[in-house]
Inverse folding.
């Protein structure tokens, strides 16, 4: 073992350029660590043969960018041509995409090497990855605990050092919450920054793809690679080219930071609050101006999320009918039974519950009574953030109310999974960028995270603050200790 | 939290086109009731807002040009269908004599 993934991306790039190492060395190291840690269930499908072949093909090419030849793991709800994409569901157990998602096309253009598809909650519905049809991933910091979700496999893969880079997706915290539970940097970009083409849709007005890494710089670098307007996704946004690493390392003196009182209320464990407050003091000592503010409607985020996400999910998942792709039941007597039985047998419990409630929410007069009302409150919430950002640069709070808890806990409680994301859901509601940065370890030696919320398209500023925290708290150097 | 009735579970399962067994009905009577009680909290929120926040995107025109292009041959597209026949995807007989 050469511990290549403990080097910085710049160091690795230098070695590749000088031909001191080859992409194949990195791929072999990744699979060696994956094989030693199979019990973590980080991956659903490995891409070993193809990755090795790709690495060999790169040997004779010019190393033309920092991500060249670097292994990456991709969440299993992002389409990869000719590589199985299951969404952690029996419904898509044998689904082989016939095209690449736009983000996959983009990372391939950088010559990153996809090593496999990571475990997750079924159709990204959950906060623990325990709804996966393929057994839950485990948290590398403590294997008896959850890795969070829904991007739990991506979090596990990076935290255990199997890869430096992973892609996740975030509908109501699914990048940031597992990043918090496993001590990673996880960014959900502004809605529209990254094309959703080829991301299996869950709740289309909330979903975004984003990077998960150990370090801030690497995270910004991967975001640089995947952003951009895409004709295949009409909700992707045209922006002039930006470098998300531009403000990394810059002084935070004078930065105006807001802490909503709800984020530091008694819904958060006291140990997490204590760590958070220590960081607030650190920010103040270094010239940031921190103010506590009241942001209305934050306490209604879970209800809003349930209505909007379940409604949209019921509509999006109507396509799984046993006809064009996915699981089909045996010997249906008519088309109606083909639909209903395929869906009964192909979907897991969490998904079925959400589709049923969502279908009911959108039916008849309920659509007006519940769904429209939720969209009105969503509008209010977005406006309250907008007025906050007139005065402040960044909003912060803890990312989660607890550290990662034991596997198996709360699996019979359909509400628990929503409550885990209470602090991160508002960001998806407004379409703002949100990010987890690790700020330390709890007394149980589990990672604690801080949540940064930026104004629309102000990810640069978030990376600036995140890099300050990384430098002061040295979190990138804290490795999983067995 | 109130449990749903069996008829209510069957109604929502029908809307969702999901078959449910007797055992599942009993389970969902409780679980869907729990979820619904959370949904109902929306009624506690007072709002004078009329705007519906449907998407965070503020751009007005979301249409692309209406050009014909072949992005994927049908042969590729039908690869994942379980039952195909020539250029068709098969489904069970819909109209019986």
């Amino acid at each position: 073992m050469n511990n290549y993934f403990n080097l910085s991306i710049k160091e690795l790039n230098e070695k590749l350029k000088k031909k001191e190492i080859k992409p194949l060395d990195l791929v072999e190291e990744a699979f060696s660590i994956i094989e030693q840690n199979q019990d973590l269930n980080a991956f659903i499908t490995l891409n070993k043969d193809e990755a090795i072949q790709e690495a060999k093909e790169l040997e004779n090419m010019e190393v033309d960018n920092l991500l060249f030849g670097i292994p990456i793991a991709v969440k299993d709800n992002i389409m990869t041509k000719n590589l199985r994409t299951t969404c952690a569901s029996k419904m898509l157990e044998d689904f082989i995409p016939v095209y690449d998602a736009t983000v996959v096309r983009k990372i391939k253009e950088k010559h990153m090497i996809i090593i496999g598809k990571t475990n997750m909650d079924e159709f990204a519905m959950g906060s623990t990855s325990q709804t996966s049809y393929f057994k839950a991933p485990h948290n590398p910091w403590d294997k008896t605990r959850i890795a969070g979700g829904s991007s739990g496999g991506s979090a596990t893969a990076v935290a255990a050092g199997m890869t430096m880079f992973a892609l996740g997706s975030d509908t109501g915290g699914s990048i940031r919450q597992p990043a918090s539970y496993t001590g990673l940097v996880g960014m959900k970009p502004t809605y529209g920054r990254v094309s959703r083409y080829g991301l299996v849709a869950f709740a289309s007005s909330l979903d975004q793809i984003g990077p998960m890494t150990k370090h801030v710089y690497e995270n910004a670098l991967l975001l640089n690679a995947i952003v951009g307007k895409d004709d295949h996704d009409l909700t992707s946004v045209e922006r002039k080219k930006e470098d998300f690493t531009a403000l990394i390392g810059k002084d935070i003196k004078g930065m105006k930071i807001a802490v909503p009182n709800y984020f530091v209320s008694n819904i958060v464990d006291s140990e997490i609050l204590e760590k958070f407050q220590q960081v607030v003091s650190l920010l103040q000592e270094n010239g940031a101006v921190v103010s506590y503010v009241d942001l209305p409607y934050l306490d209604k985020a879970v209800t809003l999320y349930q209505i909007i996400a379940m409604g949209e999910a019921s509509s999006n998942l109507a396509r799984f009918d046993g006809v064009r792709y996915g699981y089909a039941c045996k010997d249906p007597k008519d088309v109606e039974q083909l639909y209903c039985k395929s869906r009964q047998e192909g979907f897991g419990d969490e998904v079925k519950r959400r589709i049923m409630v969502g279908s009911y929410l959108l039916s008849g007069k309920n659509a007006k009574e519940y769904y429209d009302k939720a969209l009105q409150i969503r509008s209010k919430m977005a406006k309250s953030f907008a007025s906050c950002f007139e005065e402040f640069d960044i909003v912060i709070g803890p990312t989660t109310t607890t550290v990662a808890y034991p596997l198996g806990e709360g699996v019979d409680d359909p509400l628990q999974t929503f409550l885990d994301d209470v602090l991160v859901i508002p960001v998806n509601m407004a379409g703002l960028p949100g990010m987890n940065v690790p700020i330390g370890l709890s007394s149980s030696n589990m990672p604690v995270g801080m949540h940064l919320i930026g104004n629309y398209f102000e990810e640069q500023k978030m990376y600036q603050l995140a890099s300050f925290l990384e430098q002061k708290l040295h979190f990138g150097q804290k490795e999983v200790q067995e | 939290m109130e449990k749903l009735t069996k008829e209510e579970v069957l109604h929502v399962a029908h809307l969702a086109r999901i078959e449910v067994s007797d055992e599942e009905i009993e389970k969902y009577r409780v679980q869907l009731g729990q979820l619904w009680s959370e949904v109902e909290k929306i009624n506690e929120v007072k709002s004078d807002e009329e705007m519906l926040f449907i998407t965070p995107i503020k751009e007005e025109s979301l249409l692309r040009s209406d050009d014909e292009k072949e992005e994927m041959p049908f042969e590729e597209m039908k690869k994942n269908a379980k039952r195909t026949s020539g250029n068709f995807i098969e489904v069970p007989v819909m109209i019986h004599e």
In short: The domain at 1-482 of chain A is CATH 3.90.1300.10 (Amidase signature (AS) enzymes). Chain A has a mean pLDDT of 96. Chain A is about 35% helix and 15% strand. Chain A touches chain B through 73 residues (CB under 8 Å).
